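Problem: given the chain below (827 residues), write out its structure.
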Amino acid sequence: MRFREPLLLPFLAIATGVSLALGTDFAFRATLVAALAAGCLALVAGAIRARGVALAAWLVALCFGGMALVAGRAAGGPPKLSVPDKSEAIFEGCVTDPALLSADRERLTVDLAPGARAQVSLYARPGEAFPDLPYGTRIEFPGKARTTHNFNNPGGFDNVRFLARQRIYWNVSGDAASVKVLAGRCGNVVSRAIFAIRSAALNRLDSLYANDAYANGMMQAVLIGVTAKLDRMWTEDYRSTGTFHALVISGSHVAVLAAVFLFLLRIGGAPPGVALLVTVLAAWLYAGITGWQAPVLRSAAGMTLYAVARCFYRQGRLLNILAAVAIAFMAADPEQLFDASFQLSFLAVAAIAVFVIPALEATSALLARGLSSIGDTGLDLRLAPGTAQFRVEMRLLARTIAMTARLPQKVAQFLVGAVARLSLYFREIFVTSFFIQVALALPMVFYFHRLAASGLSANAIVVPVLGAVVPLGFLAVAANSHVLAQVCAWLLNVARVAVGIHARWEPDWRIPGPPFWLGALFAAALAWAAWRRIPGWSRGLAWTAIAVVLAAIVVHPFPVERTPGAFELSAIDVGQGDSLLAAFPDGKLMLIDAGGIPAFNGHRSNLDIGEQVVSTYLWSRSIRRLDVVALTHGHADHAGGMSAVLRNFHPRELWTGAMPESPEWREVRGTAERLHIAIREMRRQPAFPFGGARIEVLAPDADYAAGAEAKNNDSLVMRVRFGATSFLLTGDMERPIENQLLNAGLLSHDDVLKVGHHGSRTSSTPGLLDAVRPAFGVISDGFDNSYGHPSPATTAALRERHVAVYRTDEDGLVRFLSDGRKIAVER
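Solution.
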């Protein structure tokens, strides 16, 4: 039994084992013994020439081996610090990922012990400089550490596990002025040299683009993968048009640089073997300069395998090389199999191997061969009939142009050939983009909830433009050339305009993740279409199935995950902020606040809570639209994520409390106006029916006048009644408004209290608690937040009144479900 790509089956066997082991409790020793037993059986079967049994046994052995890889890495658990979280301590370690400077902080990775790393954030006072901490510097500093933490919502990204795979277990913060550089060096010489080149390149980019923050941030991201100076707003159009892959560090960057290296070395007279060796070494150097990012490492490894195959005069089969690289990386870190980056990289290359190359070889490649020396009729006899016919047609076209425009024949032939080559190039880009987008459709929807319709034409412009930026950018850095730097800046603007135009007519849809069975059906149809030995009619049927299933994924005709006839209030874990989902008995959906991270020293975080936390949770429940979104007040921890929610879920109305002018409110209001969402400023009013329940607006009252800045007492305060149960939603209401409601007689018994202002001592006064007498209280606050929320006094007052308190920092998402008579709590 012979296979054209013999490493595909071992890869699939190991991947199956890794998939089975993740999320289960297989013991390392048991899986290792099973793998060895299956391997012994394979050897025996091979010895007696039972080839089918031997192959099956080897695959079973590899499957158990994949399980053993996962079980072995899970054994022992994460390391522990000798001090509790947030305790002041003295830390000593080795800088292994040099500092990335932003305007307000210096961020670096420090090895505290072998296999135990921390992400360190150093803050400086105004006017103070950050210390220079290159790779291999031994440092000591006082700081506070806390264990890495997730947003604990269903469907959320497991950041703790992601960082643990990089051996990062803590976040440490400290004062930059208190850092002490110790004597001696650490790390290794090779990495020290590579990171020195990296730092020099970043400094050179800072110098070349001193007055152009956009070009500087983009060039640092495109060339070196450093995103500290990259604003998320600059990349949003790239994300929506499916061209973001051309912007981030990826295997395509390695391919472009490798092509340039090979070209320069070959025209310089280097022998093919030497040129290939130097190119491979350059690829590994580039991997180091980018901080050993996984996509570049995978590309460098694949290039190395290809070079080895060429040295032994072996044909470099793309799928075989791909499987070999995947096996090697899974052996080092089996959980990479479920990384979005890993899946997108390998699926893209697999699509090129099984779809793009055969399609182009049967069409464009044949025509391209006919464009060489069009005027030489003697070459026609040596080419395939279709190619020869194409040459004849090109000569006739050139002759017609020459006669019409009175041009020399050779000039006309050159022009015809150039236009034909350019047309074939854009056709190849289009074909490549089409097959890659289809192959990546499932992970793009699952991980990013996007499927770009404009990607085909946008990629045809952006890919070659940013492909040119990579070699030109490195040349500008090496030569310190302001001219080349400006050329790159101009190319970046061309790409920016192109994606901006495409983004304007890109359908503004976001797609919840499909159910497992539908995703499996799509993957099966794709594998069916990729199978080489099926007849043409069967391949056509496979592509029809792909189109039908893909349409079902995009349309997503699946009901929202909810309990019919019940009222639900879910407090979403958004860290130090508020976001509540209310699902009404008749199916209407309302989101109250969307979390957010306040700006620090005027600089906003690149983490968009509305996009990456709130929306992700809503999509996990198959929610595509919201009926109403309520913004209680204009503080960033409530309003910061609201614009993303409006864009993603297109509610009919936006309800607000009192809203003085602020940057957060201007952004939300502008988004609502662009999307034609009606804005309703809610003031105190009697209860009105909504969604099978009743809503009463308690604050602000009709006479409330907002100040010049957003304040907690601007909050929209509502009571929701369903049957005999009621819920009081307070926003960040503080003591003055609480007393006003008490004096007006508007506070009465409510079963569930959304504790005001994250449990601060400025809210939830004894008078309010005694009037409301809640059975349940929910506090939305951040894990180990710096504000000290919730206040011990508030939690003590709640305990004294026998209130069952739930906190998002401890319990994650908390869900209250009412049937109109009783309330159930889920967490």
